[in-house]
């Protein structure tokens, strides 16, 4: 008698499993879809959208300039400038507070940027990319983010100023 009861119970458990299986598959698909989406909804024309996997030593970093809450430029002694992309926004980051990096092999993709936010608390943001940029790319980034006036705008202003200098007032 107990052996027959075991097989009947096992059959019921198998029937229950197969009735729950479509629900589990649907839930898994939803969770995988949510986990694989990235919150990188930037403009594709943005020059900072090109990622990189370079690494630099934190000891060689001389200065940094914040482009926006997700991008900054670091100047590395003897190696030039690097564009650093952050995985999430760092709203409390400003150029008047010191920053640091945590990483096993230096400042690389996956390392963490450490800074004191506007609230005075220590905050950390993971790096999504770091890549070397040329002087031309540096200028383009600075103009794109409004940190520098483009050469064309400076030339136009100079021509306007020269044009105004030619006009003399008559008494």
Commentary on this structure:
- This protein has a domain at 49-150.
- 36% of the residues lie in helices and 25% in strands.
- The chain is of the alpha+beta class and 171 residues long.
- It contains 3 helices and 6 strands; from the N terminus they run H-E-E-E-E-E-E-H-H.
Count of alpha/pi helices: 3
Categorize the overall geometry. Answer: elongated
Radius of gyration: 28 Å
Parts with pLDDT < 50 across at least 5 consecutive residues: 36-42
Distance between the termini: 124 Å
Strand content: 15-25%
Main sheet specs? 6 strands, antiparallel
Computed structural class: alpha+beta
| Helix/strand order | HEEEEEEHH
Average of pLDDT: 76
Q: Quick one: how many beta strands? A: 6
Q: What strand line-up does the widest sheet have?
A: 1-2-3-6-5-4
What's the helical proportion of residues?
25-40%
Layout of strands and helices, then pairs:
Elements: H1 2-36, E1 61-68, E2 71-76, E3 80-86, E4 99-102, E5 112-116, E6 122-133, H2 135-144, H3 151-166
Antiparallel strand pairs: 1-2, 2-3, 3-6, 4-5, 5-6
In short:
The chain contains 3 helices and 6 strands, in the order αββββββαα. The chain has 171 residues and is of the alpha+beta class.
């Amino acid at each position: 008698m107990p052996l027959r009861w075991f097989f009947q119970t096992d059959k019921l458990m198998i029937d229950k499993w197969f009735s729950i299986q479509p629900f589990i598959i649907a839930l898994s698909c939803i969770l995988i879809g949510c986990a694989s989406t990235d919150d990188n909804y930037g403009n594709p024309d943005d020059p900072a959208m090109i990622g990189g996997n370079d690494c630099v030593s934190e000891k060689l970093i001389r200065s940094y300039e914040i482009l926006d809450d997700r991008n900054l430029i670091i100047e590395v002694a003897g190696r030039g400038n690097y564009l650093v992309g952050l995985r999430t926004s760092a709203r409390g980051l400003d150029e008047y507070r010191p920053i640091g990096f945590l990483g096993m092999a230096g400042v690389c993709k996956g390392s963490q940027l450490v800074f004191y936010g506007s609230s005075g608390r220590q905050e950390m943001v993971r790096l999504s990319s770091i890549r070397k940029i040329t002087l031309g790319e540096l200028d383009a980034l600075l103009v794109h983010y409004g940190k520098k006036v483009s050469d064309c705008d400076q030339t136009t202003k100079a021509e306007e100023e020269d044009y105004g200098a030619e006009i003399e007032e008559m008494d």
